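Feature request disguised as a bug report, sorry. It would help if multi-protein outputs had a clear separator. Right now it looks like this:
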Amino acid sequence: MNYEIFSDVSLDIDKAFMEQNEVHFVPMEYMIGEDTFHCERPESDEMMHNYYDKLRQAIPTRTSQIAPFHYVSIFEPYVKEKKPILYLSLSSGLSNTYESAQMAVEMLKETYGQVDVEVVDSLGATGGMGLLVEAACKNRDRGMSLGDNAAWLRENVNRVNYWFKVEDLMYLKRGGRISAATAVIGTALNIKPILTIKGDGKLDTIAKKRGDSLALKYMIDLFAESFDASFGNTVYICCADCLEIAGKLKKMVLELRPELEVKITMLSPIIGAHTGPDMLSLIHFGKARE
């Protein structure tokens, strides 16, 4: 079927798959100190290593929201040429990208009448969006129509499971998820919060483990309990420049399920600005999230 697949550039996705399937991206901006960077596609590992090194030096970083007019400028050339679009957004529980994209579609309709643009809320982020984009591309290759593909994604976004280990508690404090006192005490005690993304697309802390070993074991236990092979054999491990421990987690996954394809990616700067360096996530299709 002839339609284009777009996603926020905040996603994490296997770069070889991205290139082979001509995935398109909606650019986003992030700031480090006084410098602004325009991110048009997933950054290289070298670029992300330098980025997280700056975060370790306590250089402030932040991101900006995407306005509806930005989506109009991205989608309009395709609409003019009558090329249909399937767009997967960052979770509406974490960002206003979904709402902005919907507003952009309405603005395009005012100019062009009916437009073939399907906007899907991922209710997730990072490698979960990568999994969904991979599925969307495979659905398209099998001949699934634009509308049916969008419907499939909406039906299954909550089958993507997210398990995050956060290293730098000060980023959770800055985001208002824990108090300053909890951040200081947790850092002193080597506490590793384990977070998930709930069914409504919002973050939630589900456990606190002392040290990496207990944290990784807990993540593997969650994976073992919830993984669903009926959606395929791909698992994403997304890390904020902590490739060594990401490799350990991959080894643990493969010891449990050696038939799986485990893809390690660097966490995008858009999400990394809010989680900090050394965040580690395990993402896969599984039981429906509540």
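(second protein starts here, but nothing in the output says so)
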Amino acid sequence: MVAVSIVAIGLGVQISLSYLLDFILSFMPDLAEEYAEIMEAAGTTELSVLSALTVAVLAPVLEEIACRGVLFEFLMRAMHPGWNARTGAEGVTPRKPAVVAAILLTSLIFGALHMNIVQSAYAFPMGVLLSWVYWRTGNLGYSIALHLVVNFSSFGVEFMSGLLAPLGDAGAFAVLCVPLLIGIIAFARVTGRRAQADAGGAQAI
């Protein structure tokens, strides 16, 4: 169930964000042209073995290790001593302001690392989502998996746009938000049940 929800979230967020981005950039043609050149230079516009390895595998793994595995952990431990992702703050539920601050700061830095205004703008909400996934599970593998799905699905945006073209941009965006919302809700419920089970096991011990 977790794997299915990760795929649903990844596909939903990548393609729905692409529609939203195209709409916003339609009012800023110069910025749109600059962004297109950056994406072409980065190798994200055409699927190849090299682009798949660098964009869809290497980048997500390295970015998640740096941003969620190191930075988020550092911020949580600084604001809530004793914290670690797997057991929480020595078995104590961390304060919500500490979690929110760590997620937002990590996401701001994650966005800034992309070093251009367009990528930074959508990397920030993506960072929030990835940090939330990591916080919910304490497992870097889940945030890496989500990041992999998001990046790899970028190569299928044009194909999906063609399939959804009869719906119009607004209709396609609305349709794509459905798997995104369902995926988030399903993931929250599954990870919530796991957290309760872990807490019950810890109390039994």
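Even a blank line would do. Unrelated, but nice: The chain has one domain: 2-204.
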